[in-house]
Structures are given as C-alpha cells and as structure tokens.
Amino acid sequence: MVRCPCCGYSLSVLSSKYVLDYKYWCCICRKAHLQKKVDAVEFRELNRRLRLEDRERINKDYRRVYRNENVDKFRENQKKYYSLNKNKVIESREKYRLKNLERMREYYTKNKEIFRQRQKEWCDKNRQKVRDRNNKWWSEHKHQIGLKRRKAYWKKNTLESYLQRKQAL
Ligand SMILES: [Zn+2]
Q: How many CB atoms lie within 10 A of CB 23?
C-alpha cells in the first residue's frame, strides 16, 4: 500500500487519462501527488527498514559466532555481570519463569485433549514402567497413607461417637 508523504494516509490511484505524472490522490490533504516524489519516499523508507533489519541480523550472527568462539571469555563476562547485578538477574529470571509458567498453563488449557491423548498413548506403550513407578511410590508412601487412613477412621468412628455421647448427656 502506498502512503501519502505529507500525512501518511493511504493514497488512491488516479486514472491515467487525467494526469501524466500526478498519479496519486490523497483525500485528507485534498491534493494530487507526483508519482516520482511518492515513490522516492517509499523507496527511502523501504531502504531504511531493510538496512535496520540487516544490521540487526548481522549483529545477532556476530554475537553468536563470538560466543561460540570465546566460550571462556563469555562465561567470565557473564559471571562478572552476575556478581555486579545479582538482584537484577534474579528478578528477571523469576519474571521470565512466571511468564513462561503462565504461557504453558494457557497452552495446556487450550490443548488439553491432545495432552491427555498423548499421555494415554504413552501409558499404553510403557505399561511396565508405569506399574514400576506406581509400586515405588506406593512403597515409599505406605506408612503415611496408613496413618492418614487410620486417622480418618478414628475421626469418623471413635471421635464422632464420643462427641455424640457427650452431647446426649
Ligand atoms: Zn496526505
């Protein structure tokens, strides 16, 4: 889309039988624009954007190459930066972690069915593994579970009956 060099509004193209060089019309400036001028502005803008993109890409590539070639130096610099800005680094890491967690949660709620399906398939494939894991967990938590059950049983039968008897008296 071609834009007006004065106000930035998108230009409409005039039919060529009225004009030769004034090809574009801006309905906000109420004025026809020279094609040469408009094209020059467009071209300059495009050039500027491409140059910026190029610079960004080259910088990125250069940084990567530098990091791969000077691993020790890079680590050293990183350590230095960390020791100077410890709180800042920790804060930004925490921020990133929370953001990532939120994003993962959102993704999971959106694609819940797919995750469940995948999990089910994996479990079907690795039945023995799942069984071993469950057995291991059970043997590790047997004592706690027994305690919990006994406590619940006691609460339900002994304590409640005791309270009832107390109320009745
Ligand atoms: Zn305009």
A: 20
